[in-house]
Design goal:
5 strands; 60% strand; 73 residues; globular; mainly beta; five-stranded antiparallel sheet
């Protein structure tokens, strides 16, 4: 995603800040990221909200997509 906000459904996820800055919120915690940083968000954190001023890539397990979780995103 580029420049905006998205909610990523619960599943094991890796959030990579490719360029710019991002804020990741989940499980009552907030992390600020800059270009080149990545975090792992475990499924037990629930949904993750990502706000980006730049380009952020989110990867999640294939099982999550196959089960319909976030398959349309």
């Amino acid at each position: 995603m580029k420049d905006g906000e998205a909610v990523v459904p619960a599943a094991p996820r890796i959030v990579l800040c490719h360029s710019g800055e991002a804020i990741v919120a989940a499980g009552g915690e907030t992390k600020k990221m800059t270009a080149g940083q990545a975090i792992f968000a475990r499924a037990s954190l629930g949904d993750v909200t990502v706000s980006a001023d730049g380009l952020v890539v989110v990867a999640r397990t294939p099982e999550a997509a196959e089960n319909g979780v976030g398959a349309d995103r």
